[in-house]
C-alpha cells in the first residue's frame, strides 16, 4: 500500500509537469497517445475516450480522442470516424495531412491544426475531438462541442409585461446566438479571451465595431487578460475580478438576463461579456441611471414608461430613508410631526420597552430573515411562507408590545419599495445603506442623515466604471439621449451617450412630423 501511494504521487507530479510544459507532439502515434493518457489519468479516469482506427486514404494508423459528456457522439461518428474509414481516391495535392483531411475527408463544421500538448488538453476539455495520425507531428482538432444545458426560458428576475420573453441560459453559444438575433449587424464582433491558469475558461467579449470606442475595448480586454487565478467558474466571479473598487456598495458592472437589454446597450457603445455556466451577461461600463431602469421602459408609451420609472425612483428613496426619517423625527424632531399624529405614535409606543432604534432593528432584521428564507425555501411554498410569516410575526410582535403598529407599516412599505429596485446589486447596496442610515439617524437626527447623504453623493461622483464617471452624463455633464430621470419620446432620442465615447455619436436625425386630424 505505501508503494501504491508513492506511485500515485509520482504519476500526479509527472502529469502536472507535462501540462505546464509547452511540449510539441511526437512523430510517433503511440508516444502522443501515451502522453495524453497519462495526463488524463487513463484508464483510471474513463471520461477520456480513445478510438483506434486505420485510415485507408493515408495508409496509416490513427487515434481519435474526446472527452465524454462534452461532445456530440453522433457528430463524431457521422462527420469524423465515418469519412476516415471510407476508401477514397484523391490526388495528393498537399503534403500536409491536416490540410488534406480538412479539405477532402472530414465533413465537420470546423477544424484546426494544433502542434502542442497543452493545445490538445485545452481542446479536449472544451468539448472538441482530437485526431492523431502515425508519422505526423501535429494533430487535428475538430469542433464537436455539445454540453448539456436547459432550454431557453422566461426571465426570472427581469420580468416584463411588454417585450421579448426569452432569457439567457448557461450556454455561451446559445447566449451569443440570442444577441445576434437582436443585433443583426455585419460588424458585430465576438472576441474570445481565455482566463484561468489551471482550468482555462473562455470569455466572449461582444461589441459593435463601428460604435464602441477602441480605447474602451482595449481597456476591457487588458483587464480580463490581467486576471491571474486558477479558474473563474462564471460571470459572477469574473465581475468581482474586474471591479475597480471591490469594497464599494455601488456596482460598477451591470448584469442582465435579457438579450434585448444587452443588445440595446451595445447600440450605445457598451461592451457585453458572456461566459459558459452563466445565465446572464455583463455590461460595461455602467452609470447610476442604468441601475433603476429596465428594458421595458422603452417598450411602453412615453407617459407609461416615465410613470413606472418615477415609481422606481421614489422606491429607491423610500427604501433608503423612510425608517431613518422615522427614527430621527421620533427621537430628535418631535416638533416637526403634527400633534395628532405625534400623540397617536406616543400612545402606540407607550408600552414598548425598547428604544426606537432597537424596535426598528428588530423589525428590519426580521424582514431580511423572511426575505432570505423565502428565497431558500422551495419555490412552491416560498411565497406562501414569506407572506404568512410576515403577517403572523408582525401581528404577534404588536400584540406582545415588542413593536408599535406604525412601525410595522413603515417596515412593510420599506420592504416593498426595495423589491421595486430592478438591479439586484444596487438592491443589496440600498438595503445595507439603510442600516447605516438607521444608526446615523438615532445618534444625530436629520443633521446626520443630510451629512451622510451628501457624502454618498460625493462618493458616487468620484466613482468610475472603466473610466466612465458613475453619475455621467449629469455629473460631469455630457451630451446624451437625455435618458436619465425620465425618457424622451423615441423620435427625440437623437444622440448616443457621449460618456462611452461612441464612434458614431448620432443615433437618428431630427424629424418634424405634422399632426393629422
From TrEMBL:
Report the InterPro entries cross-referenced here: Spore_Ger, UPF0353/GerABKA_families
Q: For this UniProt entry, which segments traverse the membrane?
A: 310-332, 377-396, 402-421, 433-461
Keywords for this protein: Membrane, Transmembrane, Transmembrane helix
Xref: PANTHER family:
LEUCINE ZIPPER PROTEIN 4, SPORE GERMINATION PROTEIN
- Family listed: Belongs to the GerABKA family.
Q: What is this protein called?
A: Spore germination protein KA
Lineage from the top down?
A: Bacteria, Bacillati, Bacillota, Bacilli, Bacillales
Amino acid at each position: 500500500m505505501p508503494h501504491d501511494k508513492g506511485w500515485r504521487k509520482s504519476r500526479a507530479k509527472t502529469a502536472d509537469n507535462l501540462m505546464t510544459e509547452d511540449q510539441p507532439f511526437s512523430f510517433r502515434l503511440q508516444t502522443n497517445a501515451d502522453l495524453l493518457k497519462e495526463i488524463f489519468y487513463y484508464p483510471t479516469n474513463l471520461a477520456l475516450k480513445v478510438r483506434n482506427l486505420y485510415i485507408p486514404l493515408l495508409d496509416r494508423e490513427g487515434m481519435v480522442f474526446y472527452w465524454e459528456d462534452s461532445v456530440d457522439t453522433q457528430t463524431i461518428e457521422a462527420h469524423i470516424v465515418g469519412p476516415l474509414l471510407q476508401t477514397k481516391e484523391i490526388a495528393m495535392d498537399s503534403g500536409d495531412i491536416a490540410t488534406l483531411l480538412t479539405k477532402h475527408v472530414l465533413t465537420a463544421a470546423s477544424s484546426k491544426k494544433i502542434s502542442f500538448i497543452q493545445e490538445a488538453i485545452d481542446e479536449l476539455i472544451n468539448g472538441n475531438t482530437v485526431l492523431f495520425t502515425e508519422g505526423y507531428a501535429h494533430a487535428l482538432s475538430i469542433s464537436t462541442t455539445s454540453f448539456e444545458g436547459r432550454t431557453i426560458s422566461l426571465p426570472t428576475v427581469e420580468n416584463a409585461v411588454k417585450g421579448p420573453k426569452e432569457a439567457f441560459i448557461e450556454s455561451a453559444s446559445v447566449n451569443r446566438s440570442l444577441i445576434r438575433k437582436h443585433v443583426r449587424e455585419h460588424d458585430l464582433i465576438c472576441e474570445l479571451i481565455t482566463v484561468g491558469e489551471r482550468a482555462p475558461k473562455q470569455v466572449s467579449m461582444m461589441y459593435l465595431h463601428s460604435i464602441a470606442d477602441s480605447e474602451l475595448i482595449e481597456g476591457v480586454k487588458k483587464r480580463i487578460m490581467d486576471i491571474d487565478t486558477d479558474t473563474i467558474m462564471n460571470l459572477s466571479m469574473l465581475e468581482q475580478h474586474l471591479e475597480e473598487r471591490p469594497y464599494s456598495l455601488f456596482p460598477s458592472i451591470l448584469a442582465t438576463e435579457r438579450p434585448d437589454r444587452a443588445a440595446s446597450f451595445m447600440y450605445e457603445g457598451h461592451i457585453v461579456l458572456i461566459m459558459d455556466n452563466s445565465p446572464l451577461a455583463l455590461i460595461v461600463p455602467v452609470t447610476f441611471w442604468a441601475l433603476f431602469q429596465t428594458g421595458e421602459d422603452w417598450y411602453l408609451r412615453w407617459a407609461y414608461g416615465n410613470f413606472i420609472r418615477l415609481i422606481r425612483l421614489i422606491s429607491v428613496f423610500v427604501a433608503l430613508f423612510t425608517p431613518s426619517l422615522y427614527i430621527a423625527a421620533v427621537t430628535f424632531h418631535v416638533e416637526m410631526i403634527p400633534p395628532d399624529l405625534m400623540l397617536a405614535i406616543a400612545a402606540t409606543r407607550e408600552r414598548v420597552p425598547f428604544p426606537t432604534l432597537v424596535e426598528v432593528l428588530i423589525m428590519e432584521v426580521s424582514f431580511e430573515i423572511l426575505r432570505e428564507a423565502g428565497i431558500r425555501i422551495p419555490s412552491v411554498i416560498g411565497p406562501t411562507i414569506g407572506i404568512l410569516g410576515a403577517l403572523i410575526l408582525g401581528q404577534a410582535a404588536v400584540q406582545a408590545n415588542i413593536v408599535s403598529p406604525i412601525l410595522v407599516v413603515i417596515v412593510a412599505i420599506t420592504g416593498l419599495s426595495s423589491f421595486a429596485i430592478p438591479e439586484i446589486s444596487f438592491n443589496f447596496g440600498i438595503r445595507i445603506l439603510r442600516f447605516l442610515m438607521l444608526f446615523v439617524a438615532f445618534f444625530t437626527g436629520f443633521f446626520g442623515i443630510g451629512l451622510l447623504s451628501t457624502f454618498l453623493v460625493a462618493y458616487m461622483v468620484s466613482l468610475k466604471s472603466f473610466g466612465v464617471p458613475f453619475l455621467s452624463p449629469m455629473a460631469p455633464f455630457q451630451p446624451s439621449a437625455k435618458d436619465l430621470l425620465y425618457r424622451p419620446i423615441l423620435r427625440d432620442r437623437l444622440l448616443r451617450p457621449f460618456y462611452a465615447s461612441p464612434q458614431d455619436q448620432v443615433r437618428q436625425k431630427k424629424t418634424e412630423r405634422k399632426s393629422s386630424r
